[in-house]
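stuck on this fold:
=====
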Amino acid sequence: MIKLITYEEKKFMTKTSIRHKQWRRSFISLWIGCFITALGYSMTMPFISLYIDTLGHFSNWQLNFYSGIAFSITYLSQAIVSPFWGKLADLRGRKLMCLRASGVMACTIFLVGAAQNVATVIILRLLQGAFSGYINNATALMAGETPHQHSGQVMGNLMTANVTGTLLGPLFGGYLAGILGYRMPFFITGILMGVTFLLTAFMVKEHFTPIPVQKMKPIRQIFSQLANRNFILVMFLTTLLVQSSLMSISPIISLFVRQLMHGQGNISLVSGIVAAMPGFGTLLVASRVGHLMDQVGPQKILLFGLVISTLVFIPMYFVTTTLQLGILRFLLGLASAAMLPAVQTVLTVDVPQEAFGRIFSYNQSSQAIGGVAGPLLGSLVSSVFSYQAVFLFTAGLLIINLLMLILTNKKTA
């Protein structure tokens, strides 16, 4: 028996098909944008300390300190202004926030390459952080556009964009820095962020209904209506601690590689390869982890990732060659694929859509605070003790995070 399709049913099917194509196209465009953002970031940040070293005559302690400041000042300003941008995102949409971030970052990163002193670098990095947030807003946008049954997969695939860019960036950056100097990666990154701005403007579609200011619920009311608000708060703390752990070695990794190589050889290229090794591991399993999160839940994946990461950081204390460091950082990449995407998936599933912008902005602030605390503490620990001591410090942070999550799971069970 043939069933006739009514006009209303046909209209609904057509609308659904168009919406499906639109979020797929937006996902591809945002994936490319996230890739470029991560690529540009990782093209420049592993060499920030070496770049600063060319801007003056600094002692080892001064170089570590200025590197930590220049690295973390972006996250400090980001942590302060993220709630404001989150509220604006709920009022005006996430696409506008992506355009704001990519446009301003294109200018500030390009100008860093033209800086003549360390003070200029720090000021530009401060401005960059105040207007950054492309990847987080792209994640929030796709969280609102993606059907819930695909949330884990989409979050995992967005992670591959971040990781692929992070993977290739140090390689390109190391090659360019070795051939053309440390300024060139900043210039190229600024141009690529301009491309990201144009791609987002013309290819991304957001189905967003503006919320009148007078009808916007206060964030306290939203939290009070969440059935698992305590666990959401723990997710913010987890983002902070995980980011601190992952970023603690970042501002000094090129200096540590130089120490392991005894100042001989192509330090820029080797630093880029070592910095990129976690990307190889994460890229290998990120998509599979996304599928697995949809099946077993993000909490189990998060706990597993924290355990493995802790076990990987401890032997880093004993490395004596760049090969050993690279292998362990590759294993770290396998584990890190399970952490921040799992947190984002929890927020995607458990937070009402009208509050995505503000909730994700608080998570972004937590990540930014971790980006401040990790590099600063890493620089401090390396200056007082040694570069290797940073790894033990990082393992301690992950253990605290793991215990906190276990206790929270017991209370919410």
Q: What stands out?
A: The chain has 17 helices and no strands. Residues 7-44 form the longest helix (38 residues). Residues 9-13 have pLDDT under 50 and may be disordered. The two ends are 50 Å apart (CA to CA).
